[in-house]
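Feature request, filed as a ticket because there's no other form

It would be nice if the structure record came with a short human-readable summary line next to the C-alpha cells. Right now we just get the raw output. Example of a typical job, pasted below so the devs can see what we mean:
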Amino acid sequence: MEFSEKLRNIRTAKNLSQEELAEQTGISRRSIQNYESGRLLPKKRSAYTALAEALGIEEEVLLNRDIDFVLRANEQYGGDAMRQAMDLVADVKALWAGGEMEEEDMDEIMRALQEAYLEAKERKNAAHG
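Raw output as currently delivered:
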C-alpha cells in the first residue's frame, strides 16, 4: 500500500479530518491533501514523525524502503536528487507493472538500484568536493 493510501486510511480510521490532522502536526491542510492524493511526499523525516505521533502509530507504518530512499537522497544531496530518486522508483515500478516476477526478487532489485544510485551520487560528490 502506498503512503497516500496509508495516511488517508489511518486518518479516517482515527476519525480525524484533514484539518484536525493539520492542526495536530503543524503541517498545512493543503500539504495533507497533497500527501493523501499522492501528488506529493513529505520531504523531511520530521513530517513522517509528526504524522505518526498525531495518528498514534509507529513511524515505520508510514515509511517503506522506497520512501526512505527518497528521503535519504533529499537529505544527503538535495531536491534534485530527491526528484531523481522518485523518478527512479516510479520508472522501475512501471517496468514491473503486470509482471510475473516474485515480490522478493523485485525488492532485491530495487534495493540494489537504490544503493547503486546513492553510491554514484557519493562518488560524484567526492570527485567534485
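Something like this underneath would help us a lot:
The chain has eight helices and no strands.
The mean pLDDT is 91.
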